[in-house]
Write a structure and sequence with these properties.
28% of the residues lie in helices and 24% in strands. With 979 residues, it is of the alpha+beta class. This is Ribosomal RNA-processing protein 44.
Length: 979
């Protein structure tokens, strides 16, 4: 073993105020090379007696040679989709490459690490910086990149010496860097670019299409040369060049630029808004030129235009990509037919409140720089652009690459240009494409093909697409995760009963009340009389943390998934099924571990006695019954039933009524959101019927019990850990966010006071219209959209009123009641266990920053899961209407200059009704919220009769088509032939 000095800062640079630290690095000559072949010298098999495994097992490729490939850092950073393909194996990744990848892109590094952990991939990380023959000293004046390239070449040369031809014919350095390749050849190293390397593995287009063109490839990128030729044309589209990082920083410091996230309009892909991070003010962007190659979610630098150039956001419905002449595409936003949005995040509420009441123009700007890209590494669901005629592009010839445009499923994103050799096989496919670049002289971003999801329009393919679009993982659990699950059949044992702090409550009458078909039962309830004056109320939650321990593979996976995702046809669990539906689930008639909370309720008030603190304990329970909401309601309402279970349910109902009444008196809001349920064909899995979800009083009963448990838990963990408790807060909306609601209310002659949640609740309750029972629901739908979503946070982030839950009118709130399906609840269980002295607080929960980091991930996963669930409902609604035309009642929910946005209560869908363009006689009155066309006037919330069907579009695409029909048209459905 020898010592070498190392003064490098890997992946970094020296700057003013930063001192280079010279370190000693120990190097040795017996570092394992990953290949335990008999012809490989023993020195390279690692230290004597040390256990090694045969990682590399090179097999003969398409070129007939056994090959081990070493990749450079640029390949690791930019060719991950190609590297991830199952056919790519036997790759050596130098520690130098891993370090540089980690320094430049944490997400790329994690993905590369995942490949290295996959034993089937046979990727080996070689410690080249610690081997005497591969460690290279720094050279004065040499850049960090050049030094790293030299180190990788040294490793490639060493591998060729260490592994004889008899063991492996080819040891190849894979690089797209021309200079690196040239130097490698001069040093006698076998070298290839990525595309040529892939062709030695397989010449199938499904593999070579994964290669990202360009990036310094030795073979000139075909798209670059074509773009260069196009640039010489006067008609070549051009964008303004982006400012460099230094200019952006200077502009922000001087106040000449503003920074914020760009959010593309749900209604019009050519309009966007950027909210100033410092002031919260919104800036309007109009047109692709102003958006200047920014993608939704990018962090951008904005220049405000002179006030004379300010514009007014469009008031027309945009249903196709008119500006860049795209074919109409399937869309899930509410302007083209889909499930009605629920919160401010899902609408253009920011843009709406920015509009000036006088002129309608708003502060307008343009993107001048990209601070941070938000391109999805997993890619975008898309389809090949078939053009206006629907015939699609033609392949340039067998085996040749064809350049085509792909249309993302999410119309907020522009078309993406890719190159492919398998065009004919992709025309009817939902595919995944990744964006690689968007040069200023290209009308579209450049990308590459990743994979096909299936035939467009099929439930399986579109479900895969919506999971991708919402970043929801549906991969099976890894063996290491299953290894954490107790063996089945599992039973409560004497060991569990003897655990300190766990009470035996198996004789307590407990039951659960859930939706039909529920398998992952988190909660159960009890209400027993103690005497003539008191009732003991109990909420019992699955004790998941007795099985889910920190620093295990299962806990890491649960933290990454964050939540269970519920689709129409299936459930994507946060935890393995053995836990969610068996071991942890509080199924009827089985003994289960629980975390119980108890309150003493005064019979005189039917409210918890506030002089007695809630009591928490671990327990063992045996649920007497797992009831549905309907079954529980029937028991409660049946006067002939007076058994112990029914009497317990009635006590729960009575307590819930008083709890709910108290919440309403405190200003809790009763909001509205469309919940849809499907009746599915058990054979075909097609939807047979769809309608709004019916709620019963038992739904409210369970809700009140869960709210009580969550509030009491929040108070207990905050008392124990004031700076690091996991809470759930609902921010108080800014008054300007209510302007759309106030405008609607004014047009309807209604007074709404949103100054406090109490005044908002009171005025919403009073907002009724005689003879129109649904009018109040429509107002509440609009009120819901004026508010942001509730979010998880650490108590150390906020103080006092900032921690409150606005919608529930609760000073403190958290999530405790669903640990089977929410990771935030798992964290709360761990905090509560520590707070009541059952265990020490885990080190990961000791600081506010740590809790905040967990909360941030939970927020993202919860939002993604909600969006995926809604997208699944929209997909199945579309499938349902493919065979049907249905005439149904609807309500005008918005008025536009060229049509209406209508809400269909029966199906919970919202979509556009377009006026005939040739008439062009529509008159919009935004103050009165009316629009007149063809001699007829429609007003906000008017009742209309509509026909809902599926409209077939080019390239196997479809969308919901809603048209107004005469009011005397018979209601009902007519079956149509599926297309």
């Amino acid at each position: 073993m020898r010592r070498a000095s190392d003064g490098r800062v890997i992946g970094g640079r020296l700057a003013r105020g930063v001192r280079a630290v010279r370190r000693e690095r120990y190097v040795r000559d017996d570092v394992y090379v990953g290949y335990h072949h008999e012809d490989v010298e023993a020195t390279h098999r690692g230290p004597a007696g040390e256990r090694r495994w045969d990682v590399l097992r090179p097999r003969r490729g398409a070129d007939g040679a056994r090959r081990i490939a070493l990749i450079d850092s640029n390949v690791a950073l930019h060719q991950l989709d190609a590297l991830a393909d199952g056919r790519v194996r036997d790759v050596v990744i130098c520690a130098t490459v891993m370090e540089e990848t980690r320094a430049r892109s944490r997400s790329s590094y994690e993905r590369l690490r995942e490949m290295c952990r996959d034993v089937e991939k046979r990727f080996y990380v070689f410690s080249n910086e610690h081997h005497g023959e591969t460690y290279v000293e720094d050279v004065a004046g040499e850049s960090a990149n050049d030094r790293n390239d030299r180190a990788i070449r040294a490793a490639a040369a060493f591998y060729r010496r260490a592994i004889p031809v008899s063991a492996c014919e080819r040891v190849t350095l894979v690089t797209n860097d021309r200079a690196n390749a040239r130097k490698a050849r001069e040093e006698g190293i076998d070298v290839m670019n990525v595309l040529d390397w892939m062709r030695t593995i397989s010449d199938e287009a499904s593999l070579t299409d994964l290669v990202v063109p360009g990036g310094g490839a030795e073979i000139p990128d075909e798209r670059e040369s074509k773009r260069a030729r196009a640039a010489g044309s006067s008609s070549a589209p051009k964008f303004d060049e982006h400012l460099d990082a230094g200019s952006i920083k200077e502009g922000l410091a001087k106040g000449e630029l503003i920074k914020g996230l760009i959010r593309t309009s749900l209604y019009n892909p050519f309009e966007a808004h950027v909210t100033n991070e410092e002031t919260g003010e919104s800036v309007f962007l109009s047109g692709r030129a102003a958006m200047n190659r920014a993608f939704d979610g990018d962090s951008v630098a904005i220049e405000i235009l002179p006030e004379s150039e300010w514009l007014r956001p469009g008031s027309k419905i945009v249903t196709s990509d008119i500006e860049d002449d795209a074919a109409a595409t399937t869309s899930t936003d509410d302007e083209s037919g889909g499930l009605a949005p629920e919160t401010a995040e899902e609408t253009d509420i920011v843009g709406a409140v920015a509009t000036s009441a006088k002129s309608g123009v708003v502060p307008t700007g343009k993107v001048v720089g990209i601070i941070r890209r938000n391109w999805r590494e997993r890619g975008y669901a898309a389809s090949i652009d078939m053009g206006k005629d629907g015939k699609g592009p033609k392949a340039t010839g067998a085996g040749f690459t064809t350049r085509v445009l792909c249309v993302p499923s999410d119309r907020r994103f522009p078309k993406i240009r890719i190159q492919t050799r398998q065009l004919e096989g992709l025309l009817d496919q939902r595919i995944v494409v990744v964006v690689d670049d968007w040069p200023a002289d290209s009308a579209y971003p450049e990308g590459h093909y990743v994979k096909s999801l299936g035939v467009i329009g099929t439930v399986d393919a579109e479900t895969q697409a919506l999971l991708l679009e919402n970043d929801v993982d549906d991969r099976p659990f890894a063996p290491a995760v299953f290894a954490c699950v107790p063996a089945l059949p599992w039973r409560v044992t004497e060991h569990h009963l003897a655990e300190p702090g766990r009470e035996d409550l198996r004789d307590l009458l407990v039951c659960s009340v859930d939706p039909p078909g529920c398998k992952d039962i988190d909660d159960a309830l009890s209400a027993r009389e103690l005497d003539d004056e008191r009732i003991e109320l109990g909420v019992h939650i699955a004790d998941v943390t007795s099985f889910l321990h920190p620093n295990t593979a299962m806990d890491e996976e649960a933290a990454r998934r964050g939540t269970t995702t519920y689709l129409v046809q299936r459930r994507l669990d946060m935890l393995p099924g053995a836990l969610t539906t068996d071991i942890c689930s509080l199924v009827g008639g089985e003994e289960r571990l629980a975390f119980s909370a108890f309150w003493i309720v005064n019979k005189s008030t039917m409210l918890p006695d506030e002089t007695i603190k809630p009591r928490f304990t671990k327990s063992v329970i045996k649920s007497a019954a797992a009831l549905t909401y309907e079954q529980a309601q029937l028991r409660i309402d049946d006067a002939t039933l007076n058994d112990d279970l029914t009497l317990s349910l009635r006590r729960l109902r009575d307590i819930a009524r008083r709890l709910r009444k108290r919440r309403m008196e405190n200003g809790a809001l009763t909001l509205a959101s469309p919940e849809v349920k499907f009746e599915m064909d058990q054979q075909s899995s097609d939807p047979l019927d769809v309608g709004m979800y019916v709620t019963r009083e038992t739904n409210q009963m369970v809700e009140e019990m869960m709210l009580l448990a969550n509030v009491s838990t929040a108070e207990r963990i905050l008392e124990a850990y004031p700076a690091a408790a996991m809470l759930r807060r609902h921010p108080i909306p800014e008054q300007k966010m209510f302007e759309p609601l106030l405008k609607t209310a004014k047009a309807c002659g209604i007074d709404i006071d949103p100054s406090t949640n109490r005044s908002l609740a009171a005025t919403l309750d009073a907002a009724v219209r005689p003879g129109d029972s649904y009018f109040n629901t429509l107002l509440r739908l609009q009120a819901t959209r004026c508010m942001s979503q509730a979010v998880y946070c650490s108590s150390g982030q906020y103080a006092g009123p900032e921690r409150m839950h606005y919608g529930l009118a609760m000073p403190l709130y958290t999530h405790f009641t669903s640990p089977i399906r929410r990771y935030a609840d798992v964290i709360v269980h761990r905090l509560l266990s520590a707070a009541i002295g059952l265990c020490p607080r885990h080190e990961s929960l000791e600081s506010s920053d740590h809790v905040k980091a967990i909360a941030d991930v939970c927020n993202i996963r919860h939002r993604n899961s909600q969006h995926a669930g809604r997208a699944s409902v929209e997909l199945h609604t579309l499938v349902f209407f493919r065979k049907r035309k249905i005439v149904v009642d609807a309500r005008v929910f918005k008025v536009r200059a060229n049509g209406l946005i209508v809400f269909v209560p029966k199906f919970g869908i919202e979509g556009p009704v377009l006026f005939h363009e040739e008439k062009n006689d529509a008159v919009l009155d935004e103050d009165a919220m009316t629009v007149t066309s063809g001699g007829k006037t429609w007003k906000i919330f008017d009742q209309v009769t509509v026909q809902v069907e599926v409209e077939q579009l080019p390239a196997h695409r479809s969308r919901l088509l809603i048209t107004v029909v005469p009011d005397d048209t018979p209601r009902g459905e007519a079956l149509v032939e599926a297309k």
